[in-house]
Amino acid sequence: MPDDAEPGTVRPGGRTARVREAVLRAAEDALTEQGFTRLDLADIARRAGVGKTTVYRRWGTVTGLVADLLLDMAEQSAPRTETGSLLGDLKANARLVQRTLTDPRQGALFKALIAAATCDAKTATALHRFYDIRVREWAPCVQQAVGRGEVPEGTDAHEVVRAVSAPLYYQLLISGGRLDEAAADRAAEAALAAARAGAYAGDGDGGEPA
């Protein structure tokens, strides 16, 4: 089949899937190496070993490709861990974020994507969607904790999950502090203490998905 075949015209798992995988990994490489502002679809096609027409036809723009990359990253992220306690679940979440952000490739990739989101509205929207998917994945652990009586009724599950990862991103991007498992555990413990005190209960969504 020629390189400019319309995506979706071959069976799932066939050439279309292989092309998407190759192009997304090439986009990751380019973002990690040179940042968002120097991304070029022709260069990414060359790196992926596919025809330029395929890349332009399927993704259209750099921001379209970045949006698909973020969707793929959300889909590939590790699933929620259930330990039987909210502290255990939040620590599992925090350690997953910590491992991701300290990974040489993934950490650099997230820095590039966050930087791009500050100056490109479509990338910002795609990044927000990525985090919304991940927060929704982990929110049930807080909803289950409400049922067990670990945190008050009406606790906003999404805000609790966000509170876990926020200090880790702060250390990655702002403070330059040590981003290790101890930092991850402290973030989880602080979020739990705030939730138990009712900091995330009240006028929020009560932990139910929006």
From TrEMBL:
Q: Which keywords accompany this UniProt record?
A: DNA-binding, Transcription, Transcription regulation
Q: Which GO terms describe its molecular function?
A: DNA-binding transcription factor activity; transcription cis-regulatory region binding
> In what residue span(s) does the HTH tetR-type domain sit?
17-77
Query: Does the record carry Cell membrane as a key word?
Result: no
| DNA-binding region(s), residue ranges | 40-59
Q: Which Pfam families match?
A: TetR_C_11, TetR_N
Q: Does the keyword Transcription regulation apply?
A: yes
Q: What is this protein called?
A: TetR family transcriptional regulator
Q: What's the source species for this entry?
A: Streptomyces cellostaticus
